[in-house]
Amino acid sequence: MPNVGPLEIILVLIIALVVFGPKRLPELGRSMGRGMREFKDSVTGKDDDDEPPRIQRAERPADEDEAPLEGEVVHERKT
Asked: What is the 3 state secondary structure string of 41-66?
């Protein structure tokens, strides 16, 4: 089996850049990474159901009598 050196890798990257263009290349890399991650997770038996559910903070309307929470954005009403 032949060894793949840095010159061959550079040549493949240049060909991919010419064929797909600079705008689609990062998108293709992301999708390949996701696919490889999903494949690895399926082989190892790791599943999304193993993770505990994430709790999302519900947005609530701010009452006029309450002080805003730290980091909360308050919009003043014009009368």
From this structure: HHHHCCCHHHCCCCCCCCCCCCCCCC
